[in-house]
Design a protein that fits this description.
This protein is α+β, with helices and mostly antiparallel strands. The protein has two domains: 40 residues; 177 residues, no CATH class. 55% of the residues lie in helices and 10% in strands. The chain contains eight helices and five strands, in the order H-H-H-E-H-E-E-H-H-H-E-H-E. It has a five-stranded mixed sheet. A hairpin with a 6-residue loop joins strand 2 and strand 3. Helix 5 packs across helix 6. It is elongated and about 75 Å long. The chain starts with a helix and ends with a strand. 34% of the residues are buried.
Length: 231
């Protein structure tokens, strides 16, 4: 634990005591928290941001993920009341799930497991149904299959709603402190928002396959993915 993290931990403990029923204890704790913040240059935003953390998962693209992978990350982020940010990289991009408590770790794990499953199903579908197609056609139709797979995998999951105000504020503060200004994520939709007759059949095949997804239920935010603007 860094020195700043240790100071933040002390401040949070003082702030927790400041809500004590004992008026004198509460006042003393609040004064101590304010003193520590002033002494170490800690802001209210820093304190809020320290309530959140992030976990990263390897993405399937370097700089522009496919629309179906975007949807997978977005749905998992919502499920676990997190915010998801895409990090482009010259080598391999990754997704950062930002949230409170154990939510980021659960989101990261679930994304990794489901991405592995949908890729395995995709490969099997290409070998059995698309092996005679040209490369571009094969990729586009396989994307439609993955979109159907993901829709099906999440059909049985209830909407757990938005994160509470405290969680939202902590996530906002964390993102502002660690990332600054972000831009909307531009994903790659090889089907152009429309499915041909063949791609629709691929989507339906993926929908049937997605019923076998192994998905643990959890809780989470509906924020759409964002992205760091430069590599």
């Amino acid at each position: 634990m860094s020195d700043k993290a240790k100071i933040l931990d002390k401040i949070k403990k003082c702030l927790a005591l400041s809500s004590s029923c004992n008026e004198h204890e509460a006042a003393a704790a609040l004064r101590q928290a304010q003193k520590l913040m002033e002494l170490h240059g800690i802001t209210d935003l820093d304190v809020q941001a320290s309530q959140a953390q992030e976990e990263k998962a390897k993405a399937g693209a370097k700089s522009k993920p496919s629309s179906w992978e975007n949807e997978l990350a977005s749905r998992i982020s919502a499920l676990f009341k997190c915010r998801v940010i895409f990090h482009p990289s010259w080598n391999c991009g990754h997704w950062a799930f930002v949230g409170c408590s154990a939510s980021p770790e659960l989101a990261q794990y679930t994304f990794t497991v489901l991405l592995r499953q949908v890729k395995r199903a995709r490969d099997a579908y290409i070998k059995s149904n698309l092996k005679r197609c040209k490369t571009a056609t094969k990729t586009r139709r396989a994307d439609a299959f993955c979109a159907g797979w993901i829709r099906s995998a999440f059909m049985a999951i209830n909407d757990f709603g938005q994160p509470d105000e405290k969680t939202s504020q902590a996530i906002d503060a964390y993102v502002a402190t660690n990332y600054g200004e972000l831009e909307p994520l531009k994903s790659k939709d090889r089907n152009g928002g429309r499915l041909s007759d063949k791609s629709l059949q691929d989507f339906l095949a993926g929908h049937r396959s997605g019923r076998d997804a192994q998905l643990n239920r959890g809780v989470g935010s509906t924020d759409q993915p964002l992205a760091i603007s430069n590599i």
